[in-house]
Amino acid sequence: MDKTLLTNELLPIYQTTDTGEKVVDARELCGFLNVGRDFTTWLKDRIEKYGFVDGEDFILTLTKTGERQNVTRHDYILKLDMAKELAMVENNEQGRKARRYFIKVEKRFKQGEPQVPLANMERAKITRLLQMLDMAEREKLFTLETESAIRKQIAEMVLGDKAVTHKELPPWEQPEPPHIRYKGRWYKSSEIAVIAGVSVNLIGQLSSKHNIRTDEYSRSVSINGDSKSGVQQILYNEKGKNELVRLAELKLASGYVPRTRKKVKRR
Questions:
Q1: What pTM was estimated for this model as a whole?
Q2: So what's the pLDDT on residue 78?
Q3: How many Å apart are CA 196 and CA 225, to the nearest integer?
Q4: What is the fold of 178-253?
């Protein structure tokens, strides 16, 4: 598949020449996420677990490599939606960074904002590292740990993350927490469970596992009004509700069967 580089501030994002689709190289994403597993095994597991479809969510290309052209290399080109889901389900800081980056870049593409490429010298260094990885993979020169370290180095080179955190700002310049700025509706776990068609227990598990109980997605309130000693309840904003519904849909797609509560007949 022919593609051209659009931007690589955090991870390279390409555009296919035939359809204009915005895509991500799965190997580059795997390296940035610090997966720690064999690439092919990791991606095939994710495809099977979450029901991704060849031709709809990704494109698989087979390339003959090696001096005798006797080794088949599997390359996966991911559409942005699949790349976002893979980043999300890794449930680590690298995954959250990648997912936020994809959303930011996607919004920028829609607004028609021009992209800023890397400096030529930095691009040349990254190209050499990628070529070295490609050669080492064909000849099986590197261990998985060494390959992961090199991919991490490439990711750090394109990261350029110099954003000032809230802790570095003086108190009077720090923005209000998201749950204070938010003026929309708040949802209970039971409401989200009904929307998603799963149990309240599963919503709680997903919320905990995927770090949804943060100011970005939720807030904690006291049921009886006593903030110190009262029983606390988690409420989710629109973004949190959408995330939980999405996670529940992924769970259902992977074969999860919701438990139904049996009615007890009264005598």
A1: 0.43
A2: 93
A3: 29
A4: Multidrug-efflux Transporter Regulator; Chain: A; Domain 2 (1.10.1660)
